[in-house]
Amino acid sequence: MTTTLRPISSVLPEQIQLLANDPRVGKHLRATFPYPYTLDDAKKFLSLCQDDSVFGIFEEKDFVGVVSLQVHHQPEEAEVGYWIGVPYWGQGIATRAVEKVIHQARGRFERLIAKVFLDNPASCRVLEKAGFEYQGVELGEHVYRLTLSETY
Ligand SMILES: CC(C)(COP(=O)(O)OP(=O)(O)OC[C@H]1O[C@@H](n2cnc3c(N)ncnc32)[C@H](O)[C@@H]1OP(=O)(O)O)[C@@H](O)C(=O)NCCC(=O)NCCS
């Protein structure tokens, strides 16, 4: 299977809405990810994205999800976020997408972090497979970290 990341601007709002408008996707994401997820939500999301930080995940030619790097207050740190459309779960796609976004982050950030709701073991597994280290629970979320300078 070939998983690639492309700039989010290459994804149509209709493609995003089709996969994002499922309560199983938004359940483990922050409240800013609405349900129902309308076409206007997808357009608004795209209007706020920057191509060097938000990527469409493609499996062969199919758009299957989104992965992002959100710069933190410390400029050397970014938070990784991701979601995959339900029809594509369980195929290793999130893991491959996170591995690819780690590659994108090298040279730009010293470390990546990720935060996972306590009831989302699949996402914890994704981060562990991609090489993140578990830091513990902080403010009700599992926290993971990857130090990029140590992984060159
Ligand atoms: C979490 C999510 C990104 C996983 O995507 P995916 O493409 O299915 O992930 P992968 O196939 O790469 O890996 C999933 C791993 O979790 C495991 N897993 C799945 N459900 C699990 C569960 N209930 N308990 C423990 N492990 C579980 C899988 O077995 C797999 O591990 P393995 O390869 O060792 O068998 C996807 O379900 C999703 O988008 N969920 C909604 C949004 C979300 O949670 N985003 C992350 C926010 S932190």
TrEMBL record:
Matches recorded under SUPFAM superfamilies: Acyl-CoA N-acyltransferases (Nat)
Domain N-acetyltransferase: 16-149
Any Pfam family: Acetyltransf_3
GO molecular function, one term: acyltransferase activity, transferring groups other than amino-acyl groups
InterPro entries: Acyl_CoA_acyltransferase, GNAT_dom
PANTHER family tied to this protein: ACETYLTRANSFERASE-RELATED, N-ACETYLTRANSFERASE DOMAIN-CONTAINING PROTEIN
Listed name of the protein: GCN5-related N-acetyltransferase
